[in-house]
Structure formats: structure tokens, C-alpha cells
Amino acid sequence: MSREARMLRDENNKLEKQLDDKTNEILTDIVVYIRSANISDIDQETVRRDITQMLIDARGRGETAADVIGGDYKAFCDAIIAEIPKLSAKQRIMTAIRDTLPALGLLIGIWVVFSVIEQIINGATWYVTPVSVTDILGGAAMLILATLIVVYITKNSFNAKPAALVCLILLITAVALCAALLLPSRIIFSPNIAADAALVIVIFAAHKIIDNKL
Amino acid sequence: MIPSQMLKGTLSGCILAIISRKETYGYEIAEKLSGYGFGKIAEGTIYPLLLRLEKNGFVETEYRASELGPKRKYYSLTQLGSEELEAFKNSYNELSNAVNSTLKGGETDEQGSKDAER
What we know:
Chain A is mostly helical.
């Protein structure tokens, strides 16, 4: 996210506090839906500011969100998204990588902690963290699951069905568990904990660099 | 009430005409359109159109505090917007003349048929 977009986001966060709870709820649904669109961070924040200001103005006139936007919030969002320039394929890929890297870094961090605990319990060298095939597949499954949940929630912000979301989570968890149990747990390499820490730092640094470029 | 299909093609041109008179903001544009007989048009209906006009370079925007206090996005016409407005006026006049001729021609034809029957 560019500095300009970050500043606008902070400004929008403050602006939203001027709205009542009900209007804020509607605005949240709108913003979450717009986040799923293939548009830049700065365009997302610009639209968010315009809509927030529109709703604050409406409140001053004693009007509701429905009076200003009309009853169909999804149609309103789709009409807006249709008018905003789309990200290029390169920008889309960069955005996806940027959004995935923090989750990957966090996942590796958690895995290292559990790996060290496991090594200590087993009486093995604590600073060596063996990586198995199932560790990699399990991690990948978790990242895919997290991404699918985010996509599901953002695309369905106006009509999210909790039951469908629970089914999706259960299905992917079941597939990941089956894979973990059925696949051979072969150790493929055993890095030092310092190498793990360096990898996490590199991942977060890469995230920061890409984020500043977008 | 003007059908939305009819409105679609003309609303952008009318918005340009309103902005050409003076720098203005979304709610004021919606109010003016209502005042001109377009019926109640929500600000949310014209916002995507304003985004399109901005994307096409027909209007410029500036975000600043209004006289009454809250910050507003003000729209002003660009040179390209003025040219687009002229093009819209010409196209609309052509369409209006054609529709009027067709409707009047229809009435004349009907009257002619009735006279012939007598």
C-alpha cells in the first residue's frame, strides 16, 4: 500500500467514527465487498472516503444510507467497481503475493515454536527444526483455506451464509487432515532455527517492499 | 417518472451541463436534477456516473471543506468535458428532433387516414 493510500486509510478510519452503528455496519459491508474487487488500494480508499462522506452528509440531513445509496448496496458497489480502472495482471499477482506473505511468515513462526517444543520433548537438538512433506502440505492447505475464507467473506459481504462458510472450512480441514494422515511423514530437510528466523525476516521484508510499491 | 432505460443515455450529459454552470458536488447535482423534473435521484445513483466522467477526463475533482462545514468532493468541467457537453447537446438535439418528427408524423398520418375515410 502506497504512503498516500495508507494516509487515506487512516483518515477514513477516523471519518467512520462520525457514523452511527447501523450506518457503520452498512459501510463495513460495502468496504469489504469493494476490497474483493480487482482495483488498487488507493482507488479502494478513495471510494471509501467518498461513500463515508456521502453517508455523513446524509446523516446531517436526517437521511438514512438507503435514502442516499438506494436499497441495493451490492448493485451500487458493482456500478462503482465497473467505473474504476482494473489492476494489470502483474499488479494482481503482486497484490496476491503481498497479501499471502504475512500469513506465510506467521505460519512459519508458529511452526518453528511448536517444532522447538517438540524437539525438546523428544530430547532432540532443540535448535534444529526438521521439515517433513506433511509440514509443507499442511502449511499450504492452511494458506489456501485462509485465502478461500477471505475471498468467500468479501465476495458475499451482503449475503454471507455462515452455514456455507462452516461447510467450506470443514471440507478443506478434512482434506488437509486426510492428507496429513495418509501421506508419509518423511523429513526432507532440517534447518537451523537461525535460518528459520532469517526466512521469516526475509518474508516480512519482502512483504514491506512489495506493499510500498503497490 | 422517467424510465431508467431512457435516463441512462442522457443523465451523464445532463450532469455535465449542471457542472458546466458552476463547480458543484454530488448531492447538489442530485437535487438540481430533481428540480429539473428528473424525479428523486439518489446521490448514490449519480456517483458511479461521476466516477466515469472523472475517469474519462471530463471532470476534475477537488476535495475540500464546504461553507457549511463537512468536506465534499467538488466537480468542475475540463476542456475535454466542455467538448463532450457540446457533442451531447448536438446528439440530443438530433435525437429530440427525430423523435418529435416521428411522433408528429404519426399524428399527421392518423389524421390523413381519418380524412380519407370520410
